[in-house]
Design brief:
By secondary structure, this protein is an alpha+beta fold. It has 18 helices and 24 strands.
Length: 599
């Protein structure tokens, strides 16, 4: 079955299916030699010209031979003729209709979770690095000049600029135009807009998520930026190209990079000129926080620069900012590692970081499975602290990842039955539905397979804890979460066989209550010869003493049920290992009077 990958690299790496459309003859930026060579280089200080030009000579600039043009302007031009200027050909294009609609929507709609722009751009950078790494297996020479594969993010708080650079595959001129001016799959933007309008969860944050799910991640930059500049160098080309686009514009320009100071050996650099209200994103601490939330486990190192104070330059009498580079993410997700190579300390440390917990978990379960062609990688945890939640309160205990990228934590109820929503963990799969909407998750047969597998794994994890050497660990767990497992016996008939061994009960022995809790397995092992049933009674009846004669005469152990839910759970289970659950109240009324008559 053909599926469009959410983290599609079509927007950055692949060739589009539409040819670009130039809307005018090639225009030119007029840049003076001083601007191109020495002194300050300001590529934004440009002049548009539609006049004809004649080449007079060629200048050598950096590694490029650039023609020098004499310009002929009308006397009505407000610009004066500059002799011997260097011009850089600039191509202007219109966005395809689909892209134009998308750009307008992204630029002008108020999204509830703008911070996802960074996740999408890092995802694209990671895809570009993945492609380069794959190609380097057969073409090792493409790594020459820049063997390190990484992502670097720099911020300029003063000017509200974020620059994200990867050393990935980069783009040629045609790839740049085809990727950022068109959408490779017809109707993709239209489907995105339709899904967004139809989404009932748009106010809850799913609006921003949809951009990445439709392979439109690059355009998420316009959630926070009013201008985006992309500079890219492909190993397949000896030239570096620049793409510039602005929000609320139906066109973009592409030109060759001619400033040696801006040359990169390979890869792509994206510079975001942030909107006035979004300049706070340029703070290094915010960037680091977003990386830890959304891109912590990207498989390539992500570097950021942190300000470390100022150094005074004595001669110039200036204060110079000191910055240090540091890696922010982990190179490999813990759930992709071999469980045999991960220590318990590493599992516990990841749990505390991922879920902001102070206490270590009671247990963990790390597994990879392929069931019914659905691949799943996960780590589940049993928390040490009690989580109070009710049917109308949403939890965010299950974090969903795809290709190492965090995509959502809003689908606990779809991934696990309600009665074990206290379980926390991460789930990584490439088979999640394309659109992250609750209705789609609920109807997805793939998600149902995942839910079943996760429930089995969670219950098996609890069973292992119950069989551990330290009996008190499980008793502590039972006091906190036992009521939810009783609820599972009522709601989840398919998992009765997995739930029953987990149940614990106080019990009476010779009419005396015992503080130690008993499992159903222990009860069955201690049954008297000839005893056919498992007896239970409510604590209220036990305290009343009405049925003490029956217990004494038969010398049966009796399970004590504290709450009504316990009794209903046993009624739903009906039996365990061929032994029926029987309420003492029902049999004692028949047996005790008859014995009294005999006396």
């Amino acid at each position: 079955m053909h599926r469009l990958s959410r983290r599609s690299v079509n927007s950055i790496l692949h060739y589009g299916t539409h040819r670009r459309r130039a809307v005018a003859s090639v225009s030119v930026y007029s840049l003076t030699i001083n601007e191109m060579g020495g002194g300050e280089k300001n590529c934004d200080d440009v002049r548009w010209h539609s006049t004809t030009a004649k080449c007079s000579k060629t200048l050598k600039l950096g590694r490029m031979m650039i023609p020098s043009w004499n310009r002929y302007e009308s006397t009505g031009s407000k610009f004066q003729t500059t002799e011997s200027t260097v011009v850089v050909p600039v191509e202007k294009y219109e966005y395809e209709a689909e892209v134009s609609r998308l750009m307008d929507h992204v630029a002008n709609r108020v999204y509830s979770n703008k911070e996802l722009f960074l996740r999408e751009l890092i995802s694209n950078a990671s895809d570009a690095l993945d492609k380069l790494r794959f190609l380097s297996v057969t073409e090792p020479q493409i790594l020459e000049g820049a063997p390190e594969l990484d992502i670097r993010i720099q911020t300029d708080q003063d000017n509200g600029i974020i620059t994200l650079t990867d050393s990935g595959i980069g783009m040629t001129h045609d790839e740049l135009v085809d990727s950022l001016g068109t959408i490779a799959h017809n109707g993709t933007a239209a489907k995105f807009l339709e899904a967004l309008n139809d989404s009932k969860d748009a106010a809850a944050g799913s609006d921003s998520n949809l951009i990445g799910q439709f392979g439109l991640g690059f355009y998420s930059a316009f959630l926070v930026a009013d201008k985006v500049v992309v500079s890219t160098k492909s190993p397949k080309s000896d030239k570096q190209y620049v793409w510039e686009g602005e929000a609320n514009s139906n066109s973009y320009v592409v030109r060759e990079e001619t400033d040696p100071d801006k040359f990169i050996p390979r890869g792509t650099s994206i510079k975001l000129h942030l909107k006035r209200d979004d300049k706070g994103f340029a703070h290094p601490d915010i960037i680091n926080r977003l990386i830890k939330i959304h891109s912590q486990v990207v498989s390539f190192p992500i570097y950021t620069w942190q300000e470390k104070g100022y150094t005074k330059h004595v001669i110039l009498n200036l204060l110079i900012k000191r910055r240090s580079k540091k890696i922010v993410n982990e190179s490999q997700p813990i759930w992709l590692r071999n469980p045999k190579e991960v220590t318990r300390e590493e599992y516990n440390e990841f749990y505390k970081k991922a879920f902001s917990e102070n206490f270590e978990p009671l247990a963990s379960s790390h597994f990879t499975t392929t069931e019914d062609e659905v691949e799943l990688r996960s780590i589940l945890y049993l928390p040490a602290m009690e989580e109070y939640f009710f049917d109308d309160i949403e939890t965010n205990n299950i974090r969903l990842y795809e290709k190492n990228l965090f995509i959502s934590s809003d689908f606990d109820r779809e991934m696990l039955p309600d009665y074990i929503r206290f379980v926390k963990g991460v789930v990584d799969s490439n088979d999640f539905p394309l659109i992250l909407l609750r209705e789609i998750f609920q109807e997805s047969p793939i998600v149902r397979i995942m839910r079943k597998r996760l429930a089995h794994q969670a219950l098996d994890m609890i069973l292992l804890l119950s069989k551990g050497e330290n009996r008190k660990d499980y008793e502590k767990f039972w006091k906190k979460f036992g009521v939810f497992l009783m609820l599972g016996c009522i709601e989840d008939g398919e998992n009765h066989k997995r739930l029953a061994p987990l149940l614990r009960f106080n019990f009476s022995n010779n009419s005396k209550a015992v503080e130690t809790m008993m499992s159903l397995d222990e009860y069955v092992e201690n049954m008297k010869p000839g005893q056919e049933d498992i007896y239970y009674m409510s604590v209220v009846n036990a305290l009343s003493g009405v049925f003490v004669p029956f217990i004494l005469e038969n010398d049966f152990q009796v399970l004590l049920v504290v709450d009504t839910i316990d009794e209903v759970a046993l009624t739903n289970l009906k039996s365990y290992k061929g032994k029926n659950f029987v309420d003492v109240k029902k049999v004692a009324k028949k047996i005790v009077p008859s014995r009294a008559d005999l006396s």
